[in-house]
Write a sequence for this structure.
């Protein structure tokens, strides 16, 4: 092996190509090239089919051997023409959330083969051993595209990464290394020049080049001709030949004199570039141009380290040969022995001998030789780790050694290279966060804090208002006194009644008001915040109540008042679930959001009981009392709302981090301040990541992966109303009277109580068993129940017998139980969870407006299909809503993912990665959302105990030292 000194002795370059004895012997023993190429452009796709699975297998092996410590995430980076470049991001679970250095590698393959998995092993190692965030990036390849598209792709990715590094968990001020193997390095060289010339910020701090070209033979100048020999003398190499290079040139169609293709000729020179680390293969056609480029960098004052592997072919470490005997080995980690040597050398910069690697080390070295992963030194040469307690000379060592290890049983000699970090490379990794603290961070907010519970209870007033408003209307519609004052006289039946058209308008128009309120919340929610939006809604509600309660004989005045009140309820329907989801700890998010649905049930019980006690009165208080009752809750809320905390996530969304921290401290009074700060930082990073992917416009709700989220929300909201919930909330008393129940008001009270009690189960079940299957099973049972009601009451002469009505009542109550547990409670939980933060108001608005529009349609149409003299379906209407429940069950199975046990920011990652609905629950997240999940999962008592334990351990350690 040769190092930097070889640059000053060009006469020795030819000797670097002399065959390696061990390699020659392996070839004689039957070893064959692992990656066989082609000279036929029409067979490039076949070559990819051979190569790419090998790359993936190698990457999977290395990732598996980390034991789950390193997390892989598939990412996509946009280019100038809208194309999405695929990349694989790797991060250690021990990497601090405050940010880490970033390594960006481009794969080789002659610009016509290769994938992100090709450079993945080096990325995985840098993540595990050095705490880096590492990305292996793909780019578009020939023959599908031509020069210079790959350079444009990689430049666009470089700029995007600089702008979005924090969202990737990286801090480029700690280090930013780019590079690649072969064609990947060919891409990196021009990019680092362009980054220097265009003052890319943050700047690149190091460049890694493994067997990379720098000068096309068609562009060689007189200055370099005397040194440029290897393209001719090594044209029949083992893994790269003149014929293969000719193929790559033909399919890429480059401009040979372009500084992109021949960066050695870069017009602005090579001064002021970041440090470079070269791996050069001695028997490689590309050897001389790499050495010429390194020589130029050194002459221009650029810190440069060069390692030359004498007699080795092009990218031998990636699998130039494979030995038949290797299949007999139980191979271990390919990097363990190399890092063992690194640690040895770090403590002793100049050891007298190489460490004894033993059988495990031999297997590791065989793994490297077989090419199932990239050689570890691909990262070793591009970083410097600051390790407390080590001498500076040890940390800056650039010692290189060759060790030969012979396994007697296999009679196979193996070569490996050990090298530490050159002192010139500026990649600094901070000490990882204390892993014991993270390890115990699984259930931090398992218990509900007092302030958060108070917020949930106070917000439940919104649900009470909803339940009272729509519950009172179904009752007064059946009151004789209400019909006498506000209805019309029917001479043929000698009674007063509310005409079907009036019922339709009186029930349908307020539903339109709900839709208008939901739409309005999408415009005011973001600028006003959650608390002030709730205050606005209750002011509007009071105006509507005043208009209703002052109506003397005008049915339409009450209708107008109900429309205004419904606008307020539409705002509440959007804001309360979103607010509760944002302030709730992960483990109880479903519970807190369910407070809204549960309070709707409680409100319905209160007003149903009120109606039951008043419906036989013969004065105005029969109907005016429940109307006035609506005013109590807005007054109570407005009085206490000035003490409610604002949503920390909303505050972070508008850039008020300090206020967000204060509000989170109010909600988590027993949480450690460090954990609060960490959660705030992570949520802020997730918000910035979402802003980069979406500008927060209405159209963004229907673009890219947000479309799927929006359609899920629209679906659950629309199917909720279409299964009969809207009908029963407004026409329950009329419906019970139509199918023959004598005391419809008492049954309505019992139904409301059943709804409230069943909703209480939703405090536990969705967080325990998830949302998805509860909705699917509930829809199936709801369908069976409603079809039973239709069958019992709608057909045959016994439709109104006592036994028949008892059977129908049982089916209706069964329907109510599973409606409350499933499609009343879980719908609002999913609606609050699914949208991304930057689009939450708008997404929920769109979904609830669609749901309320379905409700409007049902409200207008139901009297005509239900009442005698029109459709006259009566009990048979259950077939219609039962059929919708069947459709809802099928739709939920196919499209609704399981969102339970996931943090809100984790859901962003799942949807962004387009995870299948059937894999949602098993997918392992690795981004910022996963870190927030960990932080939000820390039990505060345990975390405080751990902190005390850590302090005690620190004190003991100080005494021992």
């Amino acid at each position: 092996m040769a190092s930097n000194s070889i640059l000053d002795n060009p006469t020795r370059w030819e000797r670097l190509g002399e065959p390696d004895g061990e390699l020659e012997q392996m070839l004689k023993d039957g070893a064959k090239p692992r990656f066989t190429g082609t000279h036929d452009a029409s067979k490039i796709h076949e070559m990819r089919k051979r190569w790419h699975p090998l790359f993936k297998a190698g990457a999977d092996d290395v990732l598996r051997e980390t034991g789950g410590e390193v997390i892989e995430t598939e990412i996509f980076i946009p280019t100038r023409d809208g194309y999405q470049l695929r990349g694989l991001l790797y991060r250690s679970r021990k990497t601090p959330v405050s940010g880490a250095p970033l390594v960006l590698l481009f794969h080789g393959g002659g610009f016509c083969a290769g994938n992100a998995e090709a450079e993945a092993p080096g990325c995985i190692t840098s993540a595990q051993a050095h705490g880096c965030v590492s990305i292996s990036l793909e780019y578009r390849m020939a023959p599908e595209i031509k020069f210079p598209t790959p350079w444009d792709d990689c430049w666009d990715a470089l700029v995007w990464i600089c702008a979005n590094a924090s969202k990737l968990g990286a801090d480029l001020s700690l280090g930013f290394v780019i590079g690649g193997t072969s064609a990947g390095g060919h891409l990196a060289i021009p990019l680092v020049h362009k980054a220097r010339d265009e003052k890319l910020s943050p700047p690149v701090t190091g460049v890694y080049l493994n067997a990379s070209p720098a000068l096309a033979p068609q562009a060689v100048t007189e200055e370099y001709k005397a040194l440029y020999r290897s393209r001719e003398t090594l044209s029949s190499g083992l893994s790269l030949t003149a014929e293969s290079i000719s193929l790559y040139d033909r399919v890429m169609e480059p401009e040979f004199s372009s500084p992109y293709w021949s960066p050695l000729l870069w017009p602005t020179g090579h001064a002021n570039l970041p440090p470079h680390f070269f791996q050069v293969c001695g028997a490689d056609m590309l050897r001389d141009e790499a050495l010429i480029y390194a020589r130029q960098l050194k002459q221009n004052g650029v810190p440069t380290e060069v390692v030359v592997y004498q007699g080795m072919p092009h990218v031998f470490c990636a699998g130039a040969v494979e030995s038949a005997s290797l299949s007999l080995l139980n191979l271990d980690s390919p990097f363990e022995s190399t890092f063992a040597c690194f640690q040895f050398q770090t403590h002793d910069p100049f050891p007298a001998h190489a460490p004894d690697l033993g059988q495990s080390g031999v297997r590791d070295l065989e793994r490297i030789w077989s090419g199932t992963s990239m050689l570890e030194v691909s990262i070793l040469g591009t970083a410097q780790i600051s390790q407390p307690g080590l001498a500076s000379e040890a940390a800056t060592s650039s010692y290189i050694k060759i060790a030969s290890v012979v396994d007697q049983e296999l009679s196979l000699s193996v070569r490996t290279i050990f090298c530490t970090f050159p002192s010139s490379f500026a990649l600094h990794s901070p000490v990882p966060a204390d892993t014991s603290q993270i390890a115990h961070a699984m259930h931090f907010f398992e218990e509900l804090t007092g302030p958060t519970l108070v917020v949930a209870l106070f917000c439940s007033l919104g649900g009470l208002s909803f339940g009272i408003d729509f519950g009172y209307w179904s009752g007064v519609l059946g009151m004789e006194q209400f019909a006498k004052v506000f209805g019309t006289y029917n001479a043929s039946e000698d009674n007063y009644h509310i005409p079907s058209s009036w019922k339709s308008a009186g029930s349908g128009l307020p539903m339109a008001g709900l839709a208008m309120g939901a739409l309005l919340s999408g415009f005011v929610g973001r600028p006003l915040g959650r608390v002030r939006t709730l205050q606005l809604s209750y002011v509007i509600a009071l105006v509507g109540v005043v208009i209703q309660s002052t109506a003397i004989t005008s049915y339409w005045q009450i209708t107008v008042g109900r429309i205004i009140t419904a606008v307020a309820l539409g705002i509440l329907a959007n804001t309360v679930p979103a607010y509760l989801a944002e302030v709730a700890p992960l483990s109880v998010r479903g519970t807190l959001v369910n407070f809204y649905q549960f309070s709707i049930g409680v409100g319905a019980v209160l007003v149903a009981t009120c109606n039951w006690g008043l419906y036989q009165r013969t004065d105005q208080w029969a109907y005016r009392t429940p109307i006035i009752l609506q005013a109590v809750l807005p007054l109570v809320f407005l009085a206490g709302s000035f003490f409610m905390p604002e949503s920390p996530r909303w505050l972070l969304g508008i850039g008020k981090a300090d206020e967000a921290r204060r509000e989170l401290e109010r909600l988590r009074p027993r949480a450690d301040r460090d954990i609060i700060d960490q959660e705030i930082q992570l949520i802020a990073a997730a918000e910035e990541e979402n802003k980069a992917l979406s500008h927060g416009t209405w159209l963004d709700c229907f673009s890219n992966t947000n479309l799927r989220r929006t359609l899920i929300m629209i679906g659950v909201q629309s199917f909720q109303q279409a299964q009969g919930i809207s009908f029963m909330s407004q026409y329950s008393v009329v419906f019970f009277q139509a199918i023959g129940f004598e005391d419809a008001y008492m049954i309505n009270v019992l139904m409301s109580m059943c709804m409230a009690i069943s909703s209480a189960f939703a405090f536990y079940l969705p967080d325990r068993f998830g949302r998805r299957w509860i909705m699917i099973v509930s829809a199936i049972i709801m369908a069976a129940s409603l079809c039973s009601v239709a069958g019992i009451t709608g057909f045959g002469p016994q439709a109104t017998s006592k036994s028949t009505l008892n059977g129908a009542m049982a089916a209706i109550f069964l329907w109510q139980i599973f409606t409350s547990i499933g499609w009343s409670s879980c719908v609002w939980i999913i609606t609050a969870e699914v949208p991304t933060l930057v689009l939450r108001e708008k997404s929920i608005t769109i979904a609830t407006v669609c749901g309320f529009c379905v409700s409007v349609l049902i409200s207008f149409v139901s009297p005509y299909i239900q009442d005698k003299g029109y459709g006259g379906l009566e009990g048979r209407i259950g077939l219609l809503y039962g059929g919708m429940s069947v459709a809802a069950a099928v739709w939920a199975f196919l499209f609704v993912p399981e969102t339970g046990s996931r943090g809100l920011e984790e859901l962003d990652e799942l949807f962004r990665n387009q995870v299948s609905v059937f894999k949602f629950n098993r997918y392992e997240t690795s981004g910022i959302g996963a870190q927030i999940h960990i932080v939000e999962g820390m039990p505060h008592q345990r975390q405080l105990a751990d902190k005390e334990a850590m302090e005690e351990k620190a004190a003991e350690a100080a005494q021992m030292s």
In short: Residues 706-738 form the longest helix (33 residues). The longest strand covers residues 70-78. The radius of gyration is 35 Å. Residues 319-447, 938-948 have pLDDT under 50 and may be disordered.
